[in-house]
Amino acid sequence: MILLFTATFTILALSSLDQVESSAYDKIVTHSRIRAKNQGPNVCALQQVMGTKKKYFSTCRNWYNKSICGKKAMVLYECCPGYMKLEGKQGCPAVAPIDTVFGTLDLVKAKITQQYSDQSKLREELEGAGSYTMFAPSDDAWEELDPVTSLVSSGNTELYNALHYHMVNKRLLTKDLKNDMTIESMYNKQGLYINHYSNGVVTVNCARIIHGNQVATNGVVHVIDRVISVVSQTIKDVIESNDDLTSLNTAALSSGLLGQLAEPGHYTLFAPTNEAFENLDSDVLERLMSDTTVLQALLKYHLLNSVQCSEAIMAGSVYGTLEGSNIEIGCDGESLTVNGIKMVLKKDIVTSNGVIHLINQVLMPDSAKQVMELIGKSQSIFSDMVSELGLSAAMQSETEYTILAPLNGAFSDETMSMDQRLLKIILENHIVKRKVSLSDLYSGQLLETLGGKLLRVFIYRTAVCIENACMVRGSREGSNGVLHLMRSLIQPPETTIYELLLKDGRFKIFLALMESAGLTDLLKQEGSYTLFAPIDAAFGTLTEEDITLLKSDINALRAILLYHFSNGVFINGGLEGGVTNLLKTIQGNNLQVLSVNLPVGREDILILLRRLIKYMQLKVHPVHHRTNTHTITRVIKGEPSITKVTRVIEEDPSITKVTRVIEEDPSITKVTRVIEDPNVKITRVTNGDPSITIIKGVVEGEPGINKVRQVNEGKPSITQVTRLIESMSKLH
């Protein structure tokens, strides 16, 4: 009874201390207890990898995926550390009896460790006075140890020393085992290297604690999954002494990095073997070895500034390298993977300043590649054409470039069928003569291409565009250049806006009005403008009298025309989707442009939708006094089958008016609503059968009178609002 009370008190006391300062391991065990709450008291849920003996207190990620390292895992229910079953009782209601460290080895089923402790004369120490931590290899760990026979047969002294190296001369619970901690063992004060990971895994010399915190009267026992040995070498020492790493040793020496690998630290090195270096193309290997900067970047890409033991890897995770880029370390069953590829030949070579994993491939970061080597599958057409047309050979490795690579979808059948001389010119204008990273770009910047063209850069809130083409995510920087991915082919400007409109032939009315307003030179002069150019069809509802009326007031005409111009170049891809983009016009007011991303499969429909202008506002401020204020509001009709909402908000110093026009499909009833200042009145006009009604115009008369007149005509097939002209007093 006294022994049972002592055990209970000790366990509860240590548990209460754990709650004050719990570790990742303790939290994982707590979660395992919660998952098994329906199994009775003090039961923990574990996952065992199918086909192996490996069991884990799992993270939420592994638990809900029902797998560990990509392999299916079955759920086991066992007593949580420190508890036992009682016959006829559910769960694990009994506290495990407390014993000395030697007796506890039997309790945690580390029978071979207990046997060797007795054989090596360590038993007296493990049963005596003191406070110890014993990292006890499991029975499976001893059975898997190749030289175990020689260790045992070499005499009790060697076995005693080996077991002493598994001991610390004080009690250390898992909460005391901090990440990157080095503690002195009881064998000549040789170091034990502790890592405590966020997923709850705790390792000592990369051996995982599989059963922790079994408290004894004179210490604590942690069961580990392998037999550990004394660590005496640094990473540098291993590289220099391992016959499989002579090529790596040469590269590390040439780069000046070898010395760093002898210094104290906590590193993980993925060390390519000699065979891995031999698998590189001879010209690539020669280029790497001849450039110290590139070689150093290559080797640093194989180094992590943290210790990642294989037993701590339970799923894919991203880690930063000393080179600056990230790599993904994962697992596939018993194998480690790097960037999703099985390449680890040997795991967990523990050193005093980290751990080494041998790999059969050389990892190649972008910084060690030439810019043409950065091009991926999504730009394969561009890459193939550059090679076929001889541009790749013309790009020297010692010269820096920026490649603006269009995605495969940018190359239409028409483009691919062009004369090769024209294709070469197009491709030359996608290669810039110098290295320009994404962070170096700014609006107004000019980039000179191999073809001799100067490309303009446009920076927007959420996009970077070069001429008509905008970038997509995925820019990469190599040793001699930068790769930017472009959504479409770049088309450098060849002519002025005026010449484009004139050649197109659909803008005759607009050009005539520009000439009448004396604004034609605006279309010809140098500058950066965006023009929302109305085609002739947009004027289709205006009569000759209307055109004459517009031309009669030059100031009003100029205001209308300048409202179609915005200072600066705004590429469609540079407009932010889903929100209203405000573009300041030369006339002074803002255009409200809404860019909407629609799932359209056909390119011709997409082009049509991009041309739709959803929101327009036009105001001319008073020149002298209120009676001279005039407002012209225009709604441009679309196809009857497309639903459009156009909202125009107008103001003058005393009256606020909202005019809202809603057009629907002809089969749906249409409502036209005019809302004026609530202090005056609200007028609502609702048309009847949309199949026979068309509103041709609403004209409001004198400034002091607010009224609506409507004209109904019978065109039975289509309902539309063709125009709405409001005027107050006469045009100034």
TrEMBL record:
Coiled-coil segments: none
Pfam families: Fasciclin
Domain EMI: 40-94
Domain FAS1: 88-228, 232-363, 365-490, 494-636
GO molecular function terms noted in the UniProt entry: cell adhesion molecule binding
First and last residue of the signal peptide: 1-22
Source organism (scientific name): Cyprinus carpio
Predominant place of localization: secreted
Name assigned to this protein: Periostin, osteoblast specific factor a
Gene Ontology biological process terms, A to Z: cell adhesion; extracellular matrix organization
SUPFAM superfamilies recorded: FAS1 domain
Record keyword Signal present: yes
Keyword Signal part of the UniProt annotation: yes
Keywords of the record: Cell adhesion, Disulfide bond, Extracellular matrix, Gamma-carboxyglutamic acid, Repeat, Secreted, Signal
GO cellular component entries: extracellular matrix; extracellular space
SMART domains hit by this protein: FAS1
